[in-house]
Amino acid sequence: MFVDGGYRDATSGETFESRTPRDGSVLARVARGGADDVDRAVRAARAAFDDGRWRSLAPRARKQVLLRWAELIREHTEELALLETLDVGKPVNESVRVDVASAAYCIQWYAEALDKTYDEVAPSGEGSLVTITREPLGVVGAVVPWNYPLIITSWKLAPALATGNSVVLKPAEQSSLSALLLARLAVEAGIPDGVLNVVTGLGPEAGAALGRHPDVDKIAFTGSGEVGRMFLGYAAESNGKQVQLEAGGKSPQLVLADASNLTAAAEAVAWGICYNAGQTCNAGSRLVVDRAVREELMPQVLEVARSFVVGDPLDPATTMGPIVDQRQLDRVLAYLDIGRDEGAEVIGGARVATGTGGYYVEPAVLDKVSNDSRVAQEEIFGPVLSVVEFDGLEEGLRLANQTSYGLAASVWTSDLATGHRVARQLRAGTVWVNTFDATDVFAPFGGFKASGAGRDKSLHALDEYTGLKTTWFDLS
Ligand code: NAD
């Protein structure tokens, strides 16, 4: 673990195995943090917050430290990318070009923003001066998943630290390694000891202890809805801490009858479910397609999906690595059976490279799926596309919205007015029109409905890590 400026063992001395999905072998033994360790980290974070060693620095000083951190991340690109690829099976090309680069840029972006955001003066008249200032919340617990460890971690840490909070990060047990290096680089960049701590460990142990800790002011969580709701429970049982949730989706890619560029749509649909082996919260896992264009679209989707090179994530030619672990692979394969039982036509989805000991599976399409079925409603989190057909815009829109989730959606149409109208009516935190998964740190990310509450990224995330303070000066 990384607590109070240095690496530590768990108080119990216990560890757990971290296996690489590349071949199933043990990659590392990681400290198995428990409630004692979480408490130690929270106390270090609280001490750092209370004495102001970070939050009381001039904004421009905090900015310089965070910029240096982003630079150090870039200087360690290959090391971080290798850790990420070994730990979670991301193709190494993507780890370098996307994951490390985005994490560094996210930290840079918030560093640059932090000395350019102003507070407010209320219209109180001449007898008083009333200021409204944003104050850091205190100790933030960040609980993150394994699908984009560096990226999602940076979405939480960058705005939390930019606004002067202290942080205790609990990485997913499948992906502790890049977080541990990230923390060391933060201290090297000048983030004072105790401001950023990483407690590795299992969800029900370290994660639950962080959620229940009475001196944590806020939890920023990304992961499954089930565990997200547990954090609401932990907050209720303990100190009523704020809980921000990003809890996945079943995002529709809605292709309307007037979509003219079906080649582009097919490309986006296939990438939207195959990228990161479908282990993406906003994966376009539901293709909702008008019967009028279905026959022309589907062969192209299948062709793009089949063009993914599934294999060793360390091979630069690989475009789809393994599933993160055995449990997740079993889950994906089980959903193929569920789809079959529900009457879907299953195309692809074979296990491949079994001799390696790794968790490889080909992209799969579940065709002719009813939108009520489990495979159209539940998050599979693998390269599995469920295809639902409709007749006419109204039915398509109804089916697209017929989900408990509301994270993301896309609509394909050649009519800009239709695109506008449908985008307004799709109940999702992000809607793409004639594209999919376009993203940048300036755009808020998060969901409606069961996909959670609160937003990562953009200047709006600064509000997630601050509270408003009203200060009333009597001038009479
Ligand atoms: P998860 O929700 O169990 O794990 C997310 C984080 O919560 C991890 O850090 C984990 O250690 C922690 N956690 C787990 N159980 C906990 C508990 N009882 N108390 C406190 N913390 C706990 O996700 P998972 O099990 O790794 O994946 C299961 C499913 O969740 C996936 O199949 C997928 O559908 C979904 N998922 C969503 C996202 C996303 O980005 N929204 C990411 C990963 C997984």
From TrEMBL:
Gene3D superfamilies: Aldehyde Dehydrogenase, Chain A, domain 1 (3.40.605.10), Aldehyde Dehydrogenase, Chain A, domain 2 (3.40.309.10). Coiled coil: none annotated. Transmembrane segments: none annotated. Pfam families: Aldedh (PF00171). The active site is at E246. Residues 9-470 form the Aldehyde dehydrogenase domain. One of its GO terms (molecular function) is oxidoreductase activity, acting on the aldehyde or oxo group of donors, NAD or NADP as acceptor. The keyword Cell cycle does not apply. Belongs to the aldehyde dehydrogenase family. This is Aldehyde dehydrogenase.
